[in-house]
Amino acid sequence: MKILLTGGAGYIGSTVATALIAKGHIPVLLDSLVTGPRVFTKDRIFYEGDIADRALLEKIFSEHPDISHTIHFAARIIVPESVSEPYLYYIENVYKSIELFKNLADLGCSRVVFSSSAAVYGSVSGEVTEDVALDPQSPYANTKYMMEMALADMTAAMDLKAIALRYFNPIGSDPDLVTGVHVPHPSHVLGKMVDTAIGKLPQFQITGTDWPTRDGSGIRDYIDVWDLANAHVSAVEEFDAALAETKSDFEVINIGTGNGVTVKELVAAFERAWGSEINKVDAPPRPGDIEGAYANADKAKQLLKWQAERTIDDGIQTALAWTEKREAILGYK
Question: What is the pTM of this model?
Answer without folding.
Answer: 0.95
